[in-house]
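Record type: monomer structure entry
Structure origin: computed from sequence
Chain ID: A
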Amino acid sequence: MRVTIATTVFVALLVACSSGNSTAAPTQSAPAIGLGPPQTVINCPDCPLVDVNRVIDGDTIDTNIGRVRFYGVDTPERGEACFSEATAATERLAGSHVRLEDGPRLTDSFDRRLAYVYDASGNSIDVQLVAGGYARAWTQDGQHRDVLIGLEQSALESRAGCLWVAASDDDSQGFDPAGPDRDCSDFITQTGAQRFYEAAGGPGKDPHRIDGDGDGIACESLP
């Protein structure tokens, strides 16, 4: 079983715009450009294949082995902007079969299977959702965390997809300070989190609880 991480983000964006169990460590290889179909920046053509029974939303699917939550991404919840578009993107990318790769944790707090998800050809759906502007990268852990965070930053800068087309220029990612609860994993940079924190009333008040030690600096662990 082989997970490949190519050395350029360009191919991931190309695929995104056009569009289990795995214990093998990712290996470095040159991207396949011009030899067969393009590959995403992360790909796993040998990861175990499962049947897709239903797409629940942009980052959750039902399969023949149970419910699977995408490891590397967060997509909008029902009622939030971009929910329908993200769900439709996952339906289109997943098709009837997907491949799964384990991350550091096998289940989430709801006992759903956690996995990086690939299409039947081995192209990363996590990558395509983030690069296409349908999902935010999960920032807490995972072997593909850094790649996905980099893709999210590129998507934000280029105003890709429904998440970022109307994003603000202040790095706060367009979140409404009076809207749904946010935590530090929703932000790419500390600067963006700080601007959101201040717009929400910080440091006088912290309704989103993103200044854990009360020193007036939000999400200090972010770059």
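Annotation 1: Residues 6-36 have pLDDT under 50 and may be disordered.
Annotation 2: The chain is about 25% helix and 20% strand.
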